[in-house]
Amino acid sequence: MDLSDAVLDRLRHVAALPDLSATRYEIEREIGRGGIGVVYAVLDRDLDRRVALKVLEVPLAGEARLIARLEHPAIVPIHEAGVLPDGRAFYTMKLVSGARLDRYADEQRSLADRLRVVRRVGEALAFAHSRGVIHRDLKPQNVMVGEFGEVYVMDWGVEAVGGTPGYRAPETVLDHRSDIYALGALLRFVVPSSAPPALRAVVARATSADPAARYPDVTGMLDDIERFQEGLAVEAWSEPLWHRTKRFASRNALLLWLVAAYAFVKFLLFFLRTL
Amino acid sequence: MDPDTRIGGAADRFPSTHLSLLEAARSGLANEALDRVIALYWKPVYRFIRFKFGKSNEDAKDLTQAFFASALERDFFARFDPDKASFRTYVRMAVERFAAKRHQADTRQKRGGTVTLEPLDEQAVSTESPERVFEREWQRQLMALALDDLRRHCEANGKQLHFCIFEAYDLAEDDRPSYAELAARHAIAETAVNNHLAWARRTLRALVIERLRGVTSGEQELREETRRLWT
After folding, report:
1. Quick check: B144 contacting A, CB < 8 Å?
2. For the whole prediction, is pTM greater than 0.80?
3. Which CATH superfamily is domain A98-239 in?
């Protein structure tokens, strides 16, 4: 049988489609494709609502069930998990409308907006780590920013995932510090290359090749980002004296102006008295 | 798993395809493993040689034949290291080396005369690399073999109608009939058309994976190749 390119492509497409005939779901369209599976927008006929359905090319490990129990505002809730007639695993989750972080960051966004997203992602990671779950494949494509500014971290912790170049930590065995590496890479992705040195130092520490040189936990990194935003010294950077002075001046501009004004008036009075 | 899609159950016609390529080679079924490899790789290798080295139809056939004969003589499977590359890449690189040596030898023999390479029509219009052509032909052949398996499976299990609907809908070059037309043509309900199509696609998928299992080194490579095929 000699297949044309068009028929070959069609067969590759239809053979990969999940058979949902025995479920309450009806495929509407494909909305995403990753290393381990494809996500479809489907209609849940019973509840008359649209949800996202992800079909996995890898077995759904017990860890996925643990993820389903993670309840956090920045973790997409999983509704149902199951196995298709062809043996592939699937799960359904809330269908998030908004923009993926890589697209969101393409647009004109303030540094504060970008850092807010990274902090929300970090909060979700810190929560998951406290429950013993690691993400394993954090990258901009796995973060959604909803239309009301809400942030969702998706595609949690499937063991078969080896990570994505640029975001995957160099160590062979992944643990929570590998997620810190990925969060650092995510921060590098969203901030401009001209970012202040303190922020670049946060990125550098989080993405150290040596896991022990990274932040010990996500909260430590988030604290440093918060310190940067408040104009305080970050732990990741031994600040030069001139920079510390400049930062002090910037944080205490009003006070310095008052002191200068007072000194000027005192000098003026002294000068007038001597006339 | 749906018993219909368990291709290779008790009555499996291809029992050895349950073994991965390396398992088959290690358990003394190397010839059978090679048969599987030849069934899938003959055409891609032939096309690759024509495309990469501009060989004529007959020369490319001879070279392809010679390559597989050489693979039979040498310890072809033992040299394959799944940690370095997929089996598909291993075969392509082996062909490339083999054909390049032969090509150089031919060129030396004809030195003094004029060596002419036969232009390929598709080469003239294609911007694809020979490596991409090889992979595309590999996909085409894999799907063609799985389709033959599906047809035989349908005939053996009284599911000719399933194949007929699948053929009319998914194998149509153009002017695909609607579900309603297919339902009227075969005097069945539209939902039955939908179910028959879903069954055929699901079975085709299982057959493709079974074919792939027989020419990959294990679960990891099988997963990678499956992912590449569907995406």
Report:
1. yes
2. no
3. Transferase(Phosphotransferase) domain 1 (1.10.510.10)
